[in-house]
Amino acid sequence: MKPNPQTEELSYSTSQKQLDEAAAIIKLDPVAYELLRRPMRELHVTLAVKMDNGSTKIFQGFRVQHNNARGPNKGGIRFHPNETIDTIRALASWMTWKTSVMDIPLGGAKGGVICDPKTLSPGELERLSRAYIRQTASFLGTEKDIPAPDVYTTPQIMAWMADEYSIMQGNNKFGVITGKPLALGGSAGRSDATARGGIYCIREAALTLGINLTESRAAIQGYGNAGSYAHKLAVELLGLKVIAVSDSKGCIYHPEGLSYEKVMAHKKKTGSVAGFPSAIAISDKELLELDVAVLFPAALDSVITDANAMNIKAKIIAELANGPTTPEADTVLYNNGVYIIPDLLCNAGGVTVSYFEMVQNAYGYYWSEDEVQERLEKKMKTAFFAVEQKARSYNVHNRLAAYIVAVERVADAMKLRGWY
Ligand code: NAD
Fold first, then answer.
1. Mean of the pLDDT values across residues 217-231?
2. CA of 34 to the centre of ligand 1 (A)
3. Structural element, H or E, at residue 16
4. 110 is catalytic
5. Measured in angstroms, how far is the CA atom of residue 273 from the centroid of ligand 1?
6. How far apart, in Å, do the first and last CA atoms of the chain sit?
7. Minimal CB count within 10 Å: which of 81, 129, 184, 223?
8. Structural domains in the chain?
9. Alpha helical stretches, state H, 210-326
10. Residue 151 and residue 112: Cα distance in Å, rounded?
11. Does the CB atom of residue 350 touch ligand 1 within 6 A?
C-alpha cells in the first residue's frame, strides 16, 4: 500500500476516536478503556547496517504490541521513509480490533523501519531485515508476537527474517512470521485472501440488502494486491461488471466493463492501468463518485471524506484499504443509506489466512487451496453476521458495530484474566 502523506499522522487520533465512540455506547469500564487506549508495549530499536560501499548506516525501527488479552500479538512490518511511531501505534490497535472481529485467537501489533527500500540493494535490504529481527527477537515468538508483510515488505523479506530468527533459536521456527513463500511454510490461498474475504462479505451484504449483483457495476481504486484480485474475484464470484479501476498513475473507465486479464496484461507491460486501449481516462474524484453497486477503495487512507461523501452513489462500499473513510464521512454515508463493509471486517481475509498459516506451521500439516478458501468463507460469514447483528441491535453504522464487537471481546478477555 502507499500511505497517504497528507493524512498519515491522523491515523492515531482517528483510531482513538473510533474506540472512544464504541466505549461510550457499551459503557466500557474506565480501567478497561484506559488499557485499550494505549499500546501495552513498545520497542524502539536502532539498527546498524553495513552498506555495499563499506559504510555503516543507522536506521530507526519500532515494534508496538497493542494488546494480547486474546492471544499472541500479530501484525505486519512496514519499511517506509515516512514511518512514524504514531502510525505504528494506530495500526497495532487496528490489528487488535481486526483479530477480535474475526474471532481469531490473536492480539494486535505492528512494526516498522524508517527507510526507503527502493534505494537499498537486495544485499542491504537483507542485512536490514536480519538486523531488525536480531533487535526485536526477544519481543517475538509463536507464543508472543508474529509479524507479517506490510507496506514495502515482501515474502522474500519474511523468509530472511524467519531464517534469522531460526538461527538465533538454534532450530527452524518458521511459525514466527507469516506471509512466507510457499516453500518455507507459507499458506496456499494467501495471495488473494484479502480481496476474497471482502468478496465473501459483499455477497452476504447484497443478500441482506436484497441487491442482485449479477451484471451490476463496480469501481476499484488501487490496483495492487488487494485491488487487482478484487477485480478478478468480483467478476468470477459475484458476476459484477468492473467499469473503472485506477492506480497511482491514472484511472480508466469503460461503460461495458473492463477485462481483468487484459488490464493485468497491460499493467504488466506498461507498469500501470493508465493508457489501457479503448478505455476513457477519468479522474480519481470521478471514479469514487461513479454510480455503481460496489465501490472498492483499495489503495489509500482518508479518500472518502466530508468533502465528497455527499456525492458517493455506490450502494456498497467494500473497504479493502485500511482507513479509507473518515469518521465525518461515515455519518454522511450512513444517513444516505450507503452500506459500508468496514476495513476491520472487509480486509481481514489477509490476517485470517495468516492465522491459518500459523496453524499449519504449528501442525506441520498443510491444507489445499480449496480447504483454505472454505475455512476463510466460514470465518468471514460468521464475522459479517456478528457485525450486522450488532449494527441492528445498537442501531449504529457497521464500523461502529465492528468496533463494538471487537472491543467487547477484548474487554471480556481482559476481565476474565483479572486485568481489571
Ligand atoms: P499495493 O502496494 O499492492 O497496491 C497499492 C495500489 O494502490 C497500487 O496499485 C498503487 O498504484 C495504488 N495507488 C497508490 N496511490 C494511488 C492513488 N492516488 N490513486 C489510486 N491508486 C493509487 O497494496 P495492497 O497490498 O493492495 O494494499 C492496498 C490497501 O489495502 C492498503 O490500505 C492496505 O493497508 C490494505 N490491505 C492490504 C492487505 C493485503 O493483504 N494486501 C491486507 C489488509 C489491508
1. 97
2. 32
3. helix 10-26
4. yes
5. 14
6. 37
7. 81
8. 7-13+37-176 (3.40.50.10860), 193-346 (3.40.50.720)
9. 225-238, 260-270, 284-288
10. 9
11. yes
pLDDT band with cut points at 50, 70 and 90 for residue 151:
confident
What residue owns the CA closest to ligand 1's atom 8? 224
pTM, two decimals, is 0.94
398 pocket-lining for ligand 1 (C-beta < 6 Å): no
User: CB neighbours (10 Å) of residue 43?
Assistant: 16
The alpha carbons of the chain give a radius of gyration, in whole angstroms, of 21
192 lines ligand 1 (CB under 6 A): no
Q: DSSP labels for 272-286?
A: SSTT-TTPEEE-HHH
Q: Is 178 in the pocket of ligand 1 (CB under 6 A)?
A: no
DSSP bridge pairs for 46: 60
Ligand 1 in reach of 230 Cβ (< 6 A): no
Q: CA-to-CA distance for 191 and 170, rounded, in angstroms?
A: 30
Place of cell 476513457: 280
Residue whose CA lies nearest to ligand 1 atom number 17: 248
Residue 131 has pLDDT above 50, yes or no: yes
Contact 2 CB / ligand 1 (< 6 Å): yes
Cα 8 to middle of ligand 1, angstroms: 14
Report residue 8's pLDDT band, with 50, 70 and 90 as the boundaries. very low
Rounding to the nearest 10 degrees, give the CA dihedral for residues 262, 267, 270, 272.
Answer: 130
Q: Which atom of ligand 1 is nearest to the CA of 322?
A: 32
Q: Could you tell me the strand order of the sheet in which 250-253 lies?
A: 280-282, 250-253, 241-247, 217-221, 294-297, 316-318, 339-341
